[in-house]
Structure formats: C-alpha cells, structure tokens
Amino acid sequence: MALESYISLAVYFVAMLGIGLFAYKQSTSDISGYILGGRQVSPQVTALSAGASDMSGWMLMGLPGAMFVAGFDALYIAIGLVLGALANYFLVAPKLRVYTEVADDSLTVPEFFAKRFGQASASVRMVSAAIIVLFFTLYTSAGLVAGGKLFESAFSLNYQLGLIITLAVVVSYTLLGGFLAVSMTDFVQGCIMFVALVLVPIVAFTEFESAAQMSASAFESIPSLSASWQSVTLVGLISSLAWGLGYFGQPHIIVRFMAIRSVSDVGTARNIGMSWMLVTIIGALATGFVGIAYANQFGLAVDDPETIFILFSEILFHPLISGFLMAAILAAIMSTISSQLLVSASSLTEDIYRVVSKKTLTEAKTVAIGRYGVAGVALVALLLAWDASNTILSLVSNAWAGFGAAFGPLVLACLYHRQLTHSAALAGIVSGAATVLFWIYAPVLENGETLSSVIYEIVPGFIVSAVTIAVVTIFSEAPDERVQAKFRETNQVLADLS
C-alpha cells in the first residue's frame, strides 16, 4: 500500500487518541463519568454511537461477505436488524432512560436488574455481570479478528501483529477517556463508516456499462431476488429475521439509552440513528452484490469474501482515499471493541468487584479498577482471536444470540411487567444463556452437528427465557410495594412527558 494510505491511517489513529485524551480531562474523575458520561450525552452522539458500536467490523466485512457468498439470503438478516433496532428505540430507550435513574441511579445493566427489585447486591446482578464478561470477551475477539484480517489483507502484515495493533489503539483511548471517549470516537467513526459505505458501492458500480450488465454478471453466481425468495425455507427465514430480537438485550447498545441527557432527546436520536442504519446497511449489501458482479466480469480473485470491501478500496481509489477507507473499517471495528471493553470493565468493577469485596472505594480507585478491567478483558479476547481461521460473522452471531436470549426478554419484562420477581429474572437469564450455549456447542445431531445448524440459537433461547420468566413470576411472591412504586413512577414520568 502506498505512503499516502499510511498517512491517512496515521491521522486517524492520532485523532482517536486525541479524543481519548480530551475525554480523560473532561469526564473521568468519578465512576459515573467514566462508565456513563454523567448522563449528558447528546442525541446526535447517542445515535451514531449506538449505531457504530452495534454494526462493528461485520458491517464492512461480515455482511458484504455474506452477500457475496449467500446472495439475497443475507438481505433477510438486514431486514431483521432494521426492525429490531427500530423496536428497540420505541420499546426500550425511553423507559430505560427514566427507569435506570429512578432505580437509585443505576449505572450498569446488571445494577439496574438488581435495583429494579430493590436489592443492590441481588444475585441477578452477579450472574448477569458474569454473562456480560463471558459473551463480550467472545464478541470483542470477533472485532479483533476483523482487525487482524484487515492488516493482513491490506498491509501484508502478519495476522497476529494486526490483532495487536488494533487492540493497542482501541485500549489506549478507552483506558484514557472511558464512556465519553468511546461515545465521541463512535460518533466520528460512524460518520466515516457512512461516507465509506456510500462511496465504495457507487464507485464500483461505475465500472460497469449499465445496471443490467452488473446484474447479469452477479446472477452468474447467485440467484435473483425472486428465486431466492422462492427457495428460502420458513426456518431459514425465521433464523435470519430473528437477529432483530437480539437488540433488546445488547448491553453495549442499550447503555447508550441510559446515558442520553434526557428522555425527550430519544426521538431525535431515533430519527438520526435509523436513517444512518438504513443507508449503511444498504451500502454494505450493495458492496457485496457489486463485488460478485465485479469478480465475475473482470476476473477479480477473492480468496476471502469478507475482504471484498478491502479489495475495492485498493483497486478503485487513489491511495489517499484508500487509506481513508481502511480507516473506515478500523472505525467500525474499534467502535464496537471499545464499547464492549468498557461495558465489560464496568460490570467487573461495579457489579462483581464492588459487590464481592464490599469495600468502600474512592472514586479514583474505582476508576482505576475499571481501567484494569478493560486491560484484562482485552488480553483474553486477544488470545481467543489468535487463530486466523475464525470468521467474523460466526463469532458475532454467537455472542449476539447469547445476549439477546439472556437479557432481551428480561429487559422487556423489567420495563413492562409490574409483577416481575427477582427469582423470575434470575431464571430467565440462566435459561436463556444455557439454551444458546447448548444450541451452539452440544453435538446432538448426526455427524456431530449442533442444533444451530438447524435454526439460529437466538430463537429457542429467547423463547425459553421468556417462557421461564412468565412461569416463575406466576409462582413467585409479588414484589413489595416500594418496588412497584418505582415502576409506577417511571410510567408517570413518561406520561407527563407525552
């Protein structure tokens, strides 16, 4: 790659570290500022931060790669995600913003689960924190795989060295600036991703004489949309659309709703966030589709479908622009890794260490422990990502399902079910996570196949968790009046605002 491309990347790295340093001076003197930005994040930053941390490297690598391999079958995943994100803004964002403040100013998702039942040290807090650390370590490793592939493909560097470079930069600004740094860098990264996913498919399309020529070339390898629809099975369609269910339980996304400066800003954040998501997800699918056509028409060798965006960046653009597009991939990767590291560290600090030790810690000490947590989770994720044969989409899908099933039904129940009990919440988390893990890893089918080869694991996991919560609630003693009063207070605040 040319010198100009390296200059573009260097500028990007310096900018991210500069934002981290700025945030370090602004909001890391206390734990609320470090892990939630003091609940003063603007709707614009909330929207792009939620989107960028959600989409990650799979948006520029995993989804175009899926489109390249599976054709229009990847479209159903995109539809499920858009519907799920929209539902999340309507069903979860407003109530969660109010309820987490009413519930004794809960700073983390596990803390909210516990204080929702009037028990700051409830067992549901420890269990949910452990699940967050488990699945986010896996999720973070998926982002590192994307970073390693980027440096290997675009810069001809060793895959493992690419992992280390990616992790070093993102850990640096996350350690420095906490939530504010993560949110501000996510905003910048979201803007970069937006431009890149509009630019790349349009420029690639101009290499063809017409849309008809491009489509004809693509359909040499994949079926048309109508043919794809006719061949899709009900189970396959459910598996793809069910990705949308995961949104309700993703801690790194819903924590953005907790941090927005006021519930009245949620509508603005929703409009910005959904507009950004529609454009970028269409751009990602278009990149994969045009990539198929380009490979067939011009004989482009694509060894790894998940690198089609990288190949376009190298062959179609001036080196300076190529560097910018490489930065877009890093932006997608780093925005998610930083969010996941911070949420994991927050759970380790606030929900495990503080509860287990029962020590009275100074704010400075608590922030320091949070930084140790960031480093620890990052190191384990690095070890998991060390194997270059890992695929981004498979790692993401497993972690996404784990969170969606373990937390999704519970988040909705916490916000909408006044009679929800602590025992039901705990049972829902455990049953959902256990079902997903069984579905992924238990070789119960012929030839050692797992049940995830039949239907996406979030479907049974979500159903089992929801049913468990409902059944256990029926047979549990109703929560006390103080807990129910906070539920009514939340609804009243929202009613007054509307």
Describe, in plain words, how this protein is organized in 3D.
78% of the residues lie in helices and 0% in strands. The protein is globular and about 70 Å long. With 498 residues, the protein is mainly α. The protein starts with a helix and ends with a helix. It is built from 20 helices and no strands. The protein has one domain (3-391): Sodium/glucose cotransporter (Up-down Bundle). The model has no long low-confidence stretch (mean pLDDT 84).
List the helices and strands and how they pair.
Layout: H1 3-27, H2 31-36, H3 43-70, H4 73-91, H5 93-102, H6 109-115, H7 123-155, H8 159-205, H9 211-218, H10 225-231, H11 234-241, H12 251-259, H13 266-298, H14 308-316, H15 319-357, H16 363-385, H17 392-416, H18 422-441, H19 458-474, H20 481-497
Helix pairs in contact: 1-8, 1-15, 3-7, 3-8, 3-12, 3-13, 3-15, 4-11, 4-13, 5-12, 5-20, 6-7, 7-8, 7-15, 7-16, 7-17, 7-18, 8-13, 8-15, 8-16, 9-13, 12-15, 14-15, 15-16, 17-18, 17-19, 18-19
